[in-house]
Each structure stands twice: as C-alpha cells, then as structure tokens.
Specification:
The protein is mainly alpha-helical and 55 residues long. It has 4 helices and no strands.
Length: 55
C-alpha cells in the first residue's frame, strides 16, 4: 500500500502498482476474506431473468 500512496498523482507509478498486483489479486482478496463479489452475484441471481454465461 505504501507504494500505491507514494504514486499518488503519478499515473505510471499507479499503473505499475496495479500491474504488479494483478498476478496475486485473487489470492489477496481470499486472504482478506473479501466476500462482496460473491455476495453480489447471489443477490443479482435473484433478479436476473436470463442467466449470463459468466455467472
């Protein structure tokens, strides 16, 4: 996070931070016990009439 804060205002530094993080993003969210995406899908499934291929 420090490197992200250090890059505030510098587009290239911010892009580099996220590019580097992308390889471990899913693992990071798992470690954080981040559940919002799955909870959102559960809610959406109740209201979507046609099931998209990606859900």
């Amino acid at each position: 996070m420090k490197s992200l804060l250090k890059g505030i205002g510098n587009k290239k530094d911010i892009e580099k931070y996220y590019d580097n993080w992308s390889s471990s993003y899913d693992e990071t969210l798992y470690k954080w016990n981040y559940k919002a995406p799955l909870q959102s899908i559960k809610i959406l499934k109740k209201y979507i009439k046609t099931k998209p291929k990606f859900i």
